[in-house]
Specification:
Blueprint lengths: L1 H7 L43 H12 L12 E12 L7 E2 L3 E2 L5 H6 E5 L10 E9 L15 H13 L7 E3 L3 E3 L1 E7 L1 H4 L2 E2 L6 E9 L7 E12 L7 E3 L2 E10 L3 E2 L10 E6 L4 E5 H8 L14 H11 L13 E2 L1 E15 L13 E2 L4 E2 L10 E9 L5 E13 L5 E8 L1
Antiparallel strand pairs: 1-18, 2-17, 3-4, 4-5, 5-8, 6-7, 8-16, 9-18, 10-11, 11-13, 12-13, 13-14, 13-15, 15-16, 18-23, 19-20, 21-22
Length: 419
């Protein structure tokens, strides 16, 4: 049996590189001293006596040993699609109540947009979560910097028009004011957005503005009245086109649904949301009328209107929601489709009962480290290796906890690969 136990060193566990060594020889004349389950021995480790049936049984067990198992069609289930949603913010939560502008942006960058962080810049965990910008089709509300048609507001409007509108559309059109030249944009960070904004699961709080300087990087004061904006997916289907899906932004809340003025057919419209791009377009005319934004639309005038929207969102977090008794937060979730393949690893009782871990044997003759392992070895499965036909390791699946494997135990382990 020494030859047999020596060969155990070459016997791979479930996660090792496949080999074809599946049977072992047995020489009873060289059997080392060891205990055998179900038999007695004296305290001096006397050599046990084996019958012909013992040897035949042991050889049969070892002959069934494997170092790898080939999957068949029944062991693999492909193209399992699941929609996974989660909090869109960098902290993993769905509601953001802390909003800080970035101090690392240059003066030129701030003319175009403001990055919004979840914590003070420079602190651990402070990450940009979304950006705010203002666009005007005519370039109003920002300085042309001495160049013809070279204003930040016009560049922003043109950028979002090319991204979100069809080739023949020159203006954003909302149900509130029809064709509009003045827009505010909220863009989610791509790494946080994943594939798309989760429709029906976001709520944008906006505090009313009580006063503001002509240049909104100066003094902007907000009041205690907060309006919340959601999408209208609960009452309307999305429009589709080259831009993907688009819903209307309407007054409402996640708890109460769409707010209406007089009838269920007439909600207050604030703009548009493009979930596949992670962009909200707010109608500047509506913000002026409902929240007193007083958008600067003067030609060649540095208005920095996007900072007014930043103060409106961040200022809402200072107000307590009378319904929830919590501070108003910017609530949003991301969404992505995950395609999975499931592999069912079937470990039968006679398979994978040995290990090539050095602690499995002891001594120069390869004796079991645990004498009780003779005819009853015990191992723990900790990982599953997946190989291709060229015996190249492609993936390793780790178990949450080791699984005991013996001749009396079988296991069925499902390995899930997400793409």
């Amino acid at each position: 049996m020494i030859n047999k136990i020596k060969n155990l060193r070459n016997q791979s566990s479930v996660s090792q590189t496949p080999s074809q060594q599946n049977a072992f020889s047995f020489d009873p004349s060289t059997q080392p001293r060891a205990s055998v389950v179900g038999r007695t021995r004296d305290d001096q480790q006397a050599t046990p006596t084996y019958t012909t049936d013992d040897i035949a049984e042991y050889n049969a067990q070892l002959a069934n040993g494997r170092t790898f198992t080939k999957f068949d069609m029944a062991d693999k289930v492909s193209n399992q699609v699941q929609v996974v949603t989660g909090g869109i913010w960098s902290t993993g939560v769905a509601s953001l109540i802390t909003h800080f502008s970035s101090s690392t942006q240059t003066t030129t960058q701030k003319r175009y947009y403001v990055d919004v962080l979840n914590a003070l810049p420079g602190l651990t965990g402070s990450i940009t979560n979304y950006a705010i910008s203002y666009g005007n089709a005519n370039g109003s509300g920002s300085s042309a910097q001495g160049q013809l048609n070279d204003s930040a507001a016009k560049a922003i409007y043109s950028q979002f028009r090319q991204l979100l509108l069809g080739p023949s559309d020159s203006r954003f059109t909302t149900k509130a004011s029809g064709s509009t030249d003045s827009i505010y944009a909220v863009s989610f960070k791509r790494s946080q957005l994943k594939e798309r904004l989760d429709i029906g699961n976001f709520e944008l709080p906006l505090a009313n503005i009580t006063s503001r300087a002509t240049n909104a990087t100066g003094s902007v004061a907000v009041g205690s009245t907060v309006f919340t904006v959601i999408d209208d997916s609960s009452i309307s289907s999305a429009a589709t086109g080259d831009f993907g899906r688009v819903y209307n932004l309407v007054s409402g809340s996640l708890l109460g649904g769409v707010h209406t003025s007089g009838s269920a057919a007439s909600p207050i419209y604030y703009g548009l949301v493009y979930p596949d791009y992670g962009v909200m377009i707010l109608d500047g005319n509506v913000l002026d009328q409902k929240l007193a934004f007083t958008t600067n639309t003067t030609s060649n005038s540095e208005g920095n209107n996007h900072f007014a929207l930043f103060r409106s969102i961040s200022g809402s977090s200072l107000v307590t929601n009378p319904v929830t008794s919590d501070k108003y937060g910017f609530v949003a979730r991301n969404s992505e489709k995950v395609t999975s393949t499931h592999y069912f690893v079937r470990v039968k009782n006679s398979e994978y009962n040995f290990s090539n871990n050095p602690s499995f044997v002891t001594g120069s003759t390869g004796t079991f480290a645990q004498p009780s392992f003779v005819q009853d070895p015990k191992v723990y499965i900790t990982s599953i290796g997946l190989y291709n036909d060229r015996q190249e390791l492609l993936a390793i699946a780790k178990l949450s906890k080791p699984v005991l494997k013996t001749y009396q135990r079988e296991a069925l382990i499902r390995v899930k690969l997400d793409f």
